[in-house]
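Dear support,

I submitted the protein below through the web form. The confirmation email said the job was done, but the results page showed an empty box. After a refresh the structure appeared. I'm attaching both so you can tell me whether what I see now is the final result or a partial one.
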Amino acid sequence: TEAFSKIAEDFKCKPMQGVLSHQMKKHVIDGNRAILSVETDEQKVDEFEFELNEVYCIDVVMSTGEGRSKETDIRSTVFKRAVETSYILKTQKARQFISEVN
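What the results page shows now:
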């Protein structure tokens, strides 16, 4: 979180609120540990130290404005799979893919 703030200062911008970077595990893109780009009163995470062989996806989103997102009518097209949910898939290829990923 501190690194995001220092870099944003150098480039005269602000990190976006609500953006999380996550620890990654096999077939899970958002693990238990998370890094906030901006810590607020509503959104906080526990501090931790990086360990050997851990993998993280670092999402860097900056703004020259206020550092907050705006609501629009554009619909989100990015979805993630719920690992604990079993899906009934229609095609053989889809079933084969899910069985390999699981």
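Response: this is the final, complete result; the empty box was a page-load delay. The chain has two helices and five strands.
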